[in-house]
């Protein structure tokens, strides 16, 4: 039997239920994995609340790291005993063991722990594809605006951006978060709760604005994000922590300087095998070499899943949040 978090209806954190479940053998194209650690992401709250469509009853979570115990027919990319991590596939990562498709798995470098992998596979690969793929005109020497720069994805995105030669203006809500963002490479800080973000961006860029804005907040920051762009800049809608982005007024994008808006999805940037290998190679190579530091701000057990979601939604965490199970 394995311990797993199940969802029987959508709603607040209290709908999460911890149960003992039977885990079967892997079928064709599947693996049986024992988790060493599990990612707890803000996106998980979207599934739990029903903002992202789900069909209860179902599992929870899309990111984990652990050891392959067995493989099903036709699985050749991994073998029993391999250390792996993943993001994607059916919901169900909140479990001590699970059967899942082999396709989303990445082999882990030997010196990357399960905790580090669970804290950074989704976040790190997301930061990587945002910065490398969503704005083809973005290049070394450009300036970007990164909202929630001290969040789980934000701290990794800061480091990826610096590896790519970018100047980073980050928004944060507190001095504590500002210090952490600066420590990992953020060049300039804007306190979004007490400063006019777009006005400060103009000050910091000589009136020009930034080439790209990475906005994981959504509704509350959308207008300021648009006004922070330079002519023909790109607003990348990475998340909706404050609520969905408003409907896009095409005329306003013209008035703002012929700017672009994209709301990217992880799966669309990892569907092509060559692109997947490029992005994963960049991320795991830098991670294994120690050029990227993963900040784990909070650790919970699966039994504490309700509190973990409450803390995520209250913005109490800095860096990544994980569930620990032990290696």
Task: Describe the protein in words.
This protein is an alpha/beta fold and 327 residues long. It is built from 10 helices and 16 strands. The strands form 3 sheets. Strands 3, 5, 6, 7, 8, 15 and 16 form a 7-stranded mixed sheet that branches. A 6-stranded parallel sheet has the order 11-10-9-12-13-14, sandwiched between helices. 48% of the residues are buried. The model has no long low-confidence stretch (mean pLDDT 95).
Percent range for β-strand residues: 25-35%
Order of helices and strands: EEEHEEEEEHEHEHEHEHEHEHHEHE
- How many domains? The number is 2
Biggest beta sheet attributes: 7 strands, mixed
The average pLDDT is 95
DSSP strand count = 16
Classify the fold: give the CATH topology of the largest domain: Quinone Oxidoreductase, Chain A, domain 1
Category from helices, strands and their pairing: alpha/beta
Distance between the termini: 18 Å
Organism: Novosphingobium ginsenosidimutans
Protein name: Quinone oxidoreductase
Keywords: NADP, Oxidoreductase
InterPro entries: ADH-like_C, ADH-like_N, ER, GroES-like_sf, NAD(P)-bd_dom_sf, QOR-like, Quin_OxRdtase/zeta-crystal_CS
List keywords for this structure.
quinone reductase (NADPH) activity, 327 residues, 10 helices, alpha/beta, single chain, GroES-like_sf, Quinone Oxidoreductase, Chain A, domain 1, ADH-like_C, globular, 27% strand, seven-stranded mixed beta sheet, Quinone oxidoreductase, 16 strands, Rossmann fold
Short description:
With 327 residues, this protein is of the alpha/beta class. The protein has helices at residues 42-49, 114-133, 152-163, 175-183, 197-204, 222-227, 250-255, 266-269, 273-288, 305-313, and strands spanning 2-7, 16-21, 30-40, 58-59, 63-71, 83-87, 97-101, 105-107, 143-146, 167-172, 188-191, 210-215, 229-237, 260-262, 296-300, 320-324. It folds into two domains: 2-122 and 294-324, Alpha-Beta Complex (Quinone Oxidoreductase, Chain A, domain 1), CATH 3.90.180.10; 135-263, Rossmann fold (3-Layer(aba) Sandwich).
